[in-house]
Every structure is written in C-alpha cells, then in structure tokens.
Amino acid sequence: MDPYKILGVPASQVKHPSDLDKVRQRAKKLYKRYASEKNKFQAKKVMEAFEMVQRNMKKIGEGAYKLLGRGRKERELDRHFNHQTKEIKKDRRVKRKLKQERKGEKRFHLPGDKERIPTGWRERQRRKKRRRQQMNKPKKPNVDVLQGLERLAAVLPQKTKFPKVVKLLYRWIKEYMNVDNREYVFRVLNDVTKLPFLAEDKEGRQDVICVFEYVLTYNSQWFEQDDKHRMIGRAWQLASVLWCQCFTDDAFTLSSTITKLNAVFALIEEHKSAVDSYLEEKQRKAARNEAKLEAKTEAKLEAKEEEALEAKLEELKANGKKAKLAEPVEPSSANGHVEPKQEASDGEDFFGGGCEDDDESSEEEECSEDDEVSEENKKEKSKANCIDLDSDAEGGEISSVEEEESVEIESSSDSEDLEMESFVFPVPHLEESLISLRKDFVHRCLFALFQNRGPLWARTKVDTFFQEVFYRRGCLDKEQQTQVEAWQARIKVLQKESEHKVGEANNILEAHRPVVDSRELRQVVDADSNAWSAKQTFDSREKSGARHVIR
C-alpha cells in the first residue's frame, strides 16, 4: 500500500518534520469526508496511511517491530568488519594485487565488485589484433550520387536483375533527382524505354509505371517547353506506362488505356506529312552519301591502276635501256664465235616484238649512247608524271569530294544540333520521336492488346479499337499496315467461328455462363370420355320441364 497515493500527497514534498502538518490536515479532511459517507474502510485506510508517513519520517522502519535490539558483540563485529574493509581499500599493495588478479585467472572480490569471466592471454592478443586490423582497415569510399546512377544503368539491361534494379532506380529518383542531375536520369530512362523485356514481369510493371509517372510529373515544366520536349515525353509514356497498362485485368483501367491510345493515334495522324517528308529527306541524304562513297572508291581504284601502269612502264623502260647499253659489249666464246645481236633481241622481247628496220636499230643505238645524266633526268620526269597522276586522282578528286561533303554537312546541320552536343542528354528531333511513337504503338501496345483480348469483358473493347485502327491505318508504315491488317483478319475469323450463346457477356454486368430459365412447361392430355362429359351442359334457356339438352 502506498500511503502517499492514498493521501494524495507526493512523497517529494514530505522531507522534513514540519511537512507533517500538511499531511495531518489532509488526513483529517479525508477522514471526515469518509466518516460522513459512512465508509469505515476508507477512513481506517487513511489513518493507517498517515501513521506510515509519520513512521517513515521518524525513520523507525523495521526496528519498530523488533522485541530485542542488536547486541554488543554484534555491533563490535560490524565495526571491525567496516574498519577492515576501509583499510583494505586504502592499501596500495592490495590494490595492485587486485589489479593483477583481475587480469589473470585467480582473483578475489570485495563486496560490491562485479564478477567478470577472466580471459586468457591468447584471447586478449586476438582481440588486440582484431582491433588493430579494424583501425588500419581502409574505409570504403562514399559512392557519389551520379556514380550510383551509373551502376544502376549498367545492370538495368540484364533481364533477370531488371525487376529488383527498377525498385532501386525508383528509390534513387525519389531521393536524389533534382534539376541539376535530371539530364543524367533522362539518358538512363531513354535507354530503359528501348528494352524489349520492360513489361514481362508482373511486379516489375508497377515499378516501371511509378518511375516514369514520377519523372514525367516532377519535370512537367521541362516537358512542356516546346514540341520536341513534349513529344519525347509522350513517346516515353507510350513505351512504358501505356504498354504496361495494356496487360491489366481491370475493365476501367483498360478503358482509360484505350482512350489514351486513341489520343496517341490521332497525334500520329496529325503529324503524318511531317514524318513522311523527314523520311524522304533522310533517304535522299543516304543515297547521296552512298553515291559519293562510290565515286570516292572508284577514284581510288583508278588512281591505283594508273600507278600500276606507270610502274610497269618504268620497269620496261629501265630493262630496255639496260639491254641497249649491253649491245656494244661483244663477249667472245672459246671458239672465237661472236653473237653481237643476242642482247638486242632480248631487249626487243621486253617491248613485245622485234624491230625489222635498220633505222630503228640505229636510233636505239644512239639512245643507248646517252650519258647517265640523261637517264636520271628521265627518271625524275617519270616520277613527276606519277606524282601528277596521284595528285589529279587522289589529291584533286578526293579532296574536292571531301570538301563538298563537309560543306554539305555544315549546311544540313542546324545550329540547334551543335548546341545540343554540349548537353548530357540531347533531345531528339520531333520526327524521330514520332517515328519511335508510331513503332511502339503498333509493335508494343497493339500486340499486347491482341494477346489479352481473351476475356469476354475485354473482347468487345479491343475488337472495336482494332476496327477503328484498321480503318485509319493510312498514317502508319507499310510494314505496320500489313501487321494491323493481319490482326484484323484474325479477329474477324475468330468472330465468325464463335457461335452465339445465350447470355453472352457484352459488359461486366452480365454473367460469364449463359443464364438458364428455371420455369417448366407442362402439357395436360385428357381422355375422350372426358371430352364427351364436358359437353353435357345445362341449358338455362329451357325452363319448362327442366330438361337437359344435348348439344
């Protein structure tokens, strides 16, 4: 029993004998109130509480109930024990001994000391070594925010790890993305939209939707700056959010998704002419570049052929001159027989035929009598001719082609492209975003809807949407038009093959299974005798005699 709680007085306010007056007044007041209410139990409890407070103040405690006090011998022993413990605690030698024993196995404790399990020498050395290793261990460097994003971007293309990494990417975007580093995030998300397994995992679809919706909402001002930014935002939304929502099993989500896809299809129809002109211009540039490359390769081949011809001519001329120089020398055989025209015939074979006239042979002899200086001059002239050929073929034509290409590239490239090269994430052209939008619309969203048209509540909505896309397929590519036509033909075949069933669900409120009427039709057949008796009726018009009339 807590006396202070019964009296309603905190124990912290009763510290001196003078404070008992307040407690006494409080006890009298409570006693009178309980007495007037004739509550003897509470009144007696108040009196006991006051006595306990008074006893605690006088410090009587447990000794008040003892019949015999402490004896003289007991008091002497207590004094001796207390004196001895004081002396032990003051003795330095005892303290030193205690310190030594505390580290070892044997020790003794004084009253109040906590007992600890002693550790051996090896254990202490092991702990010191571990502590030293932890202090000398190099701390892991703090990973920068952009470094963490780069690590996530490196793991995202892996199909098995994609669902877990997308959750980390969403957490990084919510905690660290701001206006300064959003271009790095855009570059990562642009690569993520190109992944073919983006919507394969069921749980990962929700994370992908959360990532792109958060980024598009957080940077809504940036995506509304101009048409290029607005179009890249629509392309990302179609390639990620709408594609994931096409796999839904909710009728309302499917309806809203088809409505958004209708808006995207209208946008594709609106910019059809711009996309066609852009693709034609791109094809012209590609054809022009191919023609220039072909011309360049042909010029190089012609130059190489000319070089080979010149080299052959030089070799033939050099061999012919050597043969002519060797003519005046008349080697004598052992028998004294001389063959002066042997070398000349060999020289004639190098030029492809023999010389029949004596005049030609005399001219060749005159040429062979020239000095070495004339030969060097001719070689220099031939080299000069080769250099001129190379300069005309390679240096002249190739340099002119390169100059034309550089001038054309400079004229075709806009100033905006040069400015965007300095940014981390260069925003693609409006037409490029539209091309990717059209591609993802057909090969991702329409393909997912065609796969998920199985349920009865989704079949009518998907079939109606495909019918509308089929009628307006002129804004798509030829390959995409072929794909849409194939899907529409398959849908029509499936519709014809399926039989009409009673109670077929056209909306979510109708039952999946056909409804059967539980009412029964009964037919009663009577015998012929009953038919004759039914005709025997009383004619009320015959009053006289009360006769029955057979009809």
Automatic annotation (TrEMBL):
Bias (Basic residues) ranges: 91-100, 124-140
Compositional bias of kind Basic and acidic residues: 101-123
Chain spans, region Disordered: 82-143, 320-417
Span of domain J: 2-81
Top-rank taxon: Eukaryota
Biased composition (Acidic residues): 345-374, 389-417
Name of the protein this chain belongs to: J domain-containing protein
Species in which this protein is naturally found: Cladocopium goreaui
